[in-house]
């Protein structure tokens, strides 16, 4: 069965950096696009970024453009999110999600359990 | 302020039917497929409907989706207490080049 397991969350000071990982199993990771979606405490879902199966064209929400970088290592079945210049408003549970297609269809077929990132001094 | 507009809450009695609306524009719902997600309390979201009206394997046919113009609707029949959750619509926005979600609708089964 498909499993997505996020890790790397924690408490970080404003302006700091953090790298999240998402270990995938149960499907051919290299064939599918992947997303990061976040949810601030008590708030709704916010899409963060997408990377296609081959790591080529990436998309970012305006709120994180220039600060966050998505990447993947298909040999390790792992998705990453490098977060720099973190702000208080980046505090959220971060979910990785598998797309239904290789180049992105916007259908978040499977989700991980999420990892909490708290930006606070 | 979300790009897609959903009612904050809806409620109905067990066994009844409820609909949840999702309103957008020509840059998102009007020209792209809509998906719906269910988020039970304390858990990750789950895909409920994709391509406006298709159900993934394992999703009961009590859940249905439709789209007309720049609006989409999620329908749930035979309501159960286990359906109490937050429901989100989502789609691609061609103007923003971004995935967008509605603000979410909290379903209460009275």
- Uncertain regions of chain B: pLDDT < 50 for 5+ in a row? none
Element string of chain B (H = helix, E = strand): EEEEEEEEE
Helix content of chain B: under 10%
Q: Rounded to an integer, what's the Rg of chain A over CA atoms?
A: 13 Å
> How would you classify the helix and strand content of chain B by structural class?
mainly beta
The average pLDDT score of chain B comes to: 97
Tell me what portion of residues of chain B adopts beta-strand conformation.
Answer: 35-45%
Order of secondary-structure elements of chain A: EEEEEEEEEEE
Class by alpha and beta content of chain A: mainly beta
Number of helical elements of chain A: 0
Overall morphology of chain B:
globular
Instruction: Report the principal-axis shape of chain A.
Output: globular
Secondary structure: number of strands of chain A: 11
The end-to-end distance of chain B, rounded to whole angstroms, is: 28 Å
What is the end-to-end distance of chain A? 40 Å
- Point out poorly predicted stretches of chain A: none
User: Percent range for helical residues of chain A?
Assistant: under 10%
Largest interface: A-B, 22 and 27 residues
Average pLDDT rating of chain A: 96
Strand residues, percent of chain A: over 45%
């Amino acid at each position: 069965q498909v499993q997505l397991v996020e890790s790397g969350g924690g408490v970080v000071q404003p302006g700091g950096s953090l790298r999240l990982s998402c270990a995938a199993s149960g499907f051919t990771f290299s064939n599918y696009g992947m997303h990061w979606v976040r949810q601030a405490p008590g708030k709704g879902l916010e899409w963060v970024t997408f990377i296609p199966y081959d790591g080529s064209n990436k998309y970012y929400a305006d709120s994180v453009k220039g600060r966050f970088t998505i990447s993947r290592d298909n040999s390790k079945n792992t998705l990453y999110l490098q977060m720099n210049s973190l702000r208080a408003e980046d505090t959220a549970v971060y979910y990785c999600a598998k797309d239904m297609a290789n180049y992105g269809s916007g259908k978040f077929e499977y989700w991980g359990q999420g990892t909490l990132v708290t930006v606070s001094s | 302020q979300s790009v897609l507009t959903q009612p904050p809450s809806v409620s109905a009695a067990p066994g009844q039917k409820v609909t949840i609306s999702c309103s957008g524009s020509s840059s998102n719902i009007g020209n792209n497929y809509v998906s719906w997600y269910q988020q039970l309390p304390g858990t990750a979201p789950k895909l409920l409907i994709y391509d406006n009206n298709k159900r993934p394997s394992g999703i009961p046919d009590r859940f249905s989706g439709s789209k007309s113009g720049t609006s989409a609707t999620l329908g749930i029949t035979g309501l159960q207490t286990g359906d109490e959750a937050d429901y989100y619509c989502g789609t691609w926005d061609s103007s923003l080049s971004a995935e967008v979600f509605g603000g979410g609708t909290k379903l209460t089964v009275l």
